[in-house]
Structure formats: C-alpha cells, structure tokens
Amino acid sequence: MNPPRTLILGASRGLGRALAIEATVNLSAVVGVSRKENLLQAMAAEQPLFTFLVADFAKTEDQNRVLEYLRAQRFDKIFLVAGGGPYGLFHQRAMRDHLWAWETSFVFHAKVLHLLASLRRGEQTIVVGSSVAEDKPDPHAASYCAAKHALKGLTLSLRAENPDWDLRLFSPGYMDTDLLPKNAAVRNEGIHNVSQVAEDLWRWSLTPPGEAHKMDPQLQENL
Ligand SMILES: NC(=O)c1ccc[n+]([C@@H]2O[C@H](COP(=O)([O-])OP(=O)(O)OC[C@H]3O[C@@H](n4cnc5c(N)ncnc54)[C@H](OP(=O)(O)O)[C@@H]3O)[C@@H](O)[C@H]2O)c1
C-alpha cells in the first residue's frame, strides 16, 4: 500500500507543524498551507516529503485558490488545523479582529467541508476543534469560542448526514504553542506537549472509522 498523501491547512507552526513532522516521519507526502512562506520554506528544506502553498484563510481570493486546488487534487487525509482569535473583552476588540477569527477558524473550514461533502471522494477529513472552547464560555476569547462552537456543530452534523464519510473532530486541550499567551495562567497547571498531541492525532487518524469525536480526556472529565 502507498503511504498516505496528506493535506494540512495551517501547517507552519504549532500543532499543524508538529503534525506535518509526524506525518513525514511516517512517510506520508504532506502539502502544508498557511501564510508565512519563510516558515513553510524552512520546513520544506528540512523535510523532503513536505511541499507547501502560501494562503491566508481570512482572504476570500486565497480561500478560493485553496478550494480550486482541493478540487483538482486528491488526498488520503485532510486536516483542518488553523484557528485563532483576538484576546480581550469582546467590545474592546475591533470588529475586524472578530471577523478575522470567524473567517480563519470557521468560515474557511465550512467552505472546505462543503466542497468535500459535494465531491464525495471519501477522503478522511479531521477538523481540529477545542476541548477548551467548543462546549462552554471562554471569557476574553468570545469570537474564537463562537467559531469553535460553530465548527463542532457543523462537523458533527455533517458526520450525521454522511455516516459513510470518515469525518472526525479532534478537540485538543491546552498546548504549548504560539496561540497560548506566554503568561497564560494555565501554563502553570500543566499543558500538553504539541509533538505528543500531534503523535496522538496521527495515531488516531490511522484507526478505522467509527469514533467521530476525540476530546482531551482531562477536560472531558470537567464538563
Ligand atoms: N494551543 C492551544 O492551547 C489550543 C487548545 C485547543 C485547541 N487549539 C486549536 O488547535 C489548532 C492549532 O492551534 P495552535 O495552537 O497550533 O495554533 P498556532 O500555534 O497559532 O498555529 C496556527 C497555525 O495556523 C496557521 N494560520 C493561522 N491563521 C491563518 C490564516 N489566516 N491563514 C492561513 N493559515 C493560518 C498558522 O500559520 P501562519 O501564521 O503561517 O499563517 C499556524 O500554522 C487551532 O485550531 C486551535 O484553535 C489550540
């Protein structure tokens, strides 16, 4: 059997980067997409199985370019990883920052899922949610939290509509990445190593379809 071909949307840093490394170590050819060309280039120089596209998921023209690429290319595994949002009281952050969060963390992913559902090519698709923010309030991260709630609702509804599609939601807990502010209090309570989370995610992607949603076990207990 040929090694899987993998697409990672949000691959230059954090979980997406760690997942790209995990996938290439396991001999998967990876196409990574995100904004920072220098980081993607550095990855490609280190990992011969890694190639990339530069795109900003908050920009409609870049979204369309990635969707056209996806229409023309087949993958075995597609990971929707990018996410983010402004930190602070909702009314004190500019509306453009909230719109950025929604485009990057939800709207673009919804467009990708709409295309994949209509193409019915059967590619495994794993959406990255958040055990921290998709089920309960996340003060000072309201627009990010809203996007993650929406992403969970959409992903699990699509899975229920298309039971044969290996569409899954992976909801990590706190990880040591740029997304988590350096002074975040949770850093003192023990957060996950991102390479370990990437390894868990890759291993889960190799299991047979069945489990639609995987959460951080520690945070699941506290729900
Ligand atoms: N870190 C945590 O504690 C935590 C907890 C729960 C869930 N999560 C979720 O896990 C996922 C990965 O988070 P992370 O912590 O790895 O975040 P991160 O370190 O901030 O990395 C985000 C990745 O997404 C890309 N990206 C961000 N905005 C983009 C845009 N507009 N267009 C294209 N690419 C974009 C970034 O690359 P460029 O900057 O090069 O574009 C980067 O590769 C996210 O969905 C996040 O919500 C994280």
Q: State the CATH architecture.
A: 3-Layer(aba) Sandwich
Using only C-alpha atoms, the radius of gyration works out to: 17 Å
Structural class: alpha/beta
How is the biggest beta sheet arranged?
Answer: 7 strands, parallel
| Oligomeric state | single chain
What is the element string, with H for helices and E for strands? EHEHEHEHEHEHEH
pLDDT average, as an integer?
95
The CATH class, by name, is: Alpha Beta
β-strand number: 7
Anisotropy-based shape? globular
Q: Find the CATH topology.
A: Rossmann fold
CATH superfamily: NAD(P)-binding Rossmann-like Domain
Going across the major beta sheet, what is the strand order? 3-2-1-4-5-6-7
